[in-house]
């Protein structure tokens, strides 16, 4: 996966570190806005590090089952006040993290905004997190924009929260960093990007860079 090639990615809810290591290393990102919504994915869930281990945060959806529906048409069920609950969980788990208060106001503002569609929420949050990282912002396009000239790698269905569906990734390795509950739980790998940002702040990019293996490195790692 060369840095000059276009990479097709899904849009997740606070994607994990593996996902973000790929996103920040590509100059050309194509978000998949034409896919059908797959069940059991990171599109409406994420994992954060709590005092009891990894905690799943799930966004409730209108109508329950959505397999086969266009992702951009999936609606969020606002009756459960999920944004307030998720923000409370983030505050409880990361209130003592070194960089939580540096980003809290900006993030809380978006958690206070109502969103109708899951796609719009995830895209807005993804762009906000990108702006928090000290990187050259990638060129973002969408599959619905039409064909592009660059060779493309499609990772729309590569990532899964279910262990039995997790695929081998020769371009990514876990890199440790201090976490809030590490002294009692040990290191919890591949949590949401917010775990890394709250714990490492602007230095989060260093972890993302170290966890990403170039094409040459990944080839060597197979032997």
Summarize the main sheet.
Answer: 4 strands, parallel
Number of domains: 1
- The radius of gyration is 17 Å
Spans of at least 5 consecutive residues with low confidence: 215-223
Helix count, per DSSP?
8
Overall morphology: globular
What level of helicity do the residues show?
25-40%
Give the strand tally. 6
Give the ordered list of helices and strands: EHEEEHHHEEHHHH
Q: Strand pairing plus helix content: what structural class?
A: alpha/beta
Strand content: 5-15%
Distance between the amino and carboxyl termini: 18 Å
Order of the strands making up the biggest sheet: 5-2-1-6
Mean pLDDT: 89
Question: SSE layout and pairings?
Answer:
Elements lengths: L5 E4 L7 H7 L4 E4 L13 E6 L2 E6 L23 H13 L5 H12 L6 H15 L6 E4 L9 E3 L27 H4 L7 H8 L3 H8 L3 H7 L2
Parallel strand pairs: 1-2, 1-6, 2-5
Antiparallel strand pairs: 3-4
How would you describe what is shown here?
The protein is an alpha/beta fold and 223 residues long. It has one domain. Helices cover 33% and strands 12% of the residues. It has eight helices and six strands. α2 runs antiparallel to α3.
Q: Which terms would index this structure?
A:
223 residues, alpha/beta, four-stranded parallel beta sheet, two-stranded antiparallel ribbon, 6 strands, disordered C terminus
Quick take:
The protein contains eight helices and six strands, in the order E-H-E-E-E-H-H-H-E-E-H-H-H-H.
């Amino acid at each position: 996966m060369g840095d000059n090639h276009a990479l097709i990615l899904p849009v997740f809810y606070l994607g994990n570190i593996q996902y973000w290591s790929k996103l920040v290393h590509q100059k050309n990102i194509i978000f998949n806005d034409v896919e059908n919504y797959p069940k059991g994915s990171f599109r409406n869930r994420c994992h954060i590090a709590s005092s009891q281990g990894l905690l799943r945060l799930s966004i409730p959806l209108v109508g329950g089952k959505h397999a086969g529906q266009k992702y951009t048409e999936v609606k969020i069920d606002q009756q459960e006040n999920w944004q307030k609950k998720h923000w409370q969980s983030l505050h409880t788990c990361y209130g003592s993290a070194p960089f939580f208060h540096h980003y809290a106001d900006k993030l809380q503002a978006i958690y206070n905004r109502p969103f109708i569609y899951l796609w719009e929420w995830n895209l807005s949050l993804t762009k906000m997190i990108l702006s928090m990282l000290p990187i050259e912002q990638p060129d973002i396009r969408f599959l619905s924009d039409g064909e592009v000239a660059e060779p493309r790698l499609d990772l729309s269905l590569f990532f899964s929260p279910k262990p039995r569906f997790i695929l081998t990734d020769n371009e990514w390795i876990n890199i440790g960093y201090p976490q809030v509950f590490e002294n009692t739980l040990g290191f919890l790998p591949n949590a949401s990007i917010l775990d890394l940002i709250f714990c490492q702040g602007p230095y989060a990019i260093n972890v993302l860079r170290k966890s990403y293996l170039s094409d040459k490195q990944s080839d060597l790692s197979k032997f």
